[in-house]
Amino acid sequence: MACVGTAQGADKIRYEELFAHFENDLDHGVFNVVTLDGKGHRGRLRLEFDHARVFHRDNRSEDLPIEQVSRIETSKRGRFFPLVVESTALPLRVAVYGCEGDTGRRLAGCIARNTPFVVLYSPAWAFSVAELPVNLVVAFLIPSKVWEIVH
CA nearest 143: which of 60, 76, 56, 48? Predict the structure, then answer.
């Protein structure tokens, strides 16, 4: 019987060392910043010298002082998602590119005229289809990385 788990062994690290290691290069991925009171703050992460800034999905951000941060957990689940969205949207963007300013019937006609461009650029969708199994493997089989912040 085979078993796959995501055991989380936390690496103990000082915030300054983590900040120096990443040099703010945390563009992709989903992070969960846990504060001393046990509350999790989930979103994209930007490390600043004196605080961690968490960007939530609803376009708001939250600054957490480093004195309050106890753990930072990262997941690979959201790492490739922006690439999949971009490759999916590219053919549609090409179709409506020349339709700026058109509304109503004119917009529908413009999009219909640009349908050949959608067909021409639709191989970009192959990337999204091919990337799906990789995303599922990364999302569910690769364990999260956890850093316990030492103050």
Answer: 76
